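Section 3.1: Structural characterization of target chains.
Under the original work plan, the team committed to producing a structural model for every single-chain target entering the pipeline before any wet-lab resources were allocated. The record below documents one such target. The sequence was received from the expression subgroup and is listed exactly as submitted; it comprises 176 residues.
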Amino acid sequence: MAPRNGARGPADVAYDLRWARDVRDSVRCAGVLLVLLLLLDRGTGRLTLWRGALWVTLAMLLFLALCPARVRAGEDWLSTRRLLRERRVRTDLLVSVRCLDGVSQRLVLRDAFGGRVEIDPEVLVRNPPLWFRLEAGAQKAAADGTLLCGATVLRLLSRRIDHETAHAVFKVSGLE
């Protein structure tokens, strides 16, 4: 029987375990908005076919904005898949890792072949198997000399993941 940690063995793929739940939450948010807008329009007597189509379009746009990328990682690669496109990088050939701050923090990975992936660092914090795959590949890239920029970002992320893991262990064991 396979373990439930997102990766079943060294050659298998690790993935974001919360992705399906996040997609369901995105559908719920868009659905609630649609229902509220339709009920509001119907209650005021202003609901028409065109306004209904506008509200459906608005709900679909909200879903597209909230829908998370599906993050997967295997031996020496990491990929993100959105609705229409998949992006992939070779983690053993990373040339840069940067952290972009803004409304939401993003981790930008680039490889020697020009591949570029943007992910939310929280996905790595919540899914240690994904982090272990990325870290193993990045260590290979650093040892080979291809990782030119980003060792500090990876070190800080590693500390954060270690801190979160230790906190979870203390919490589960009642030592918090």
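The chain has five helices and seven strands.
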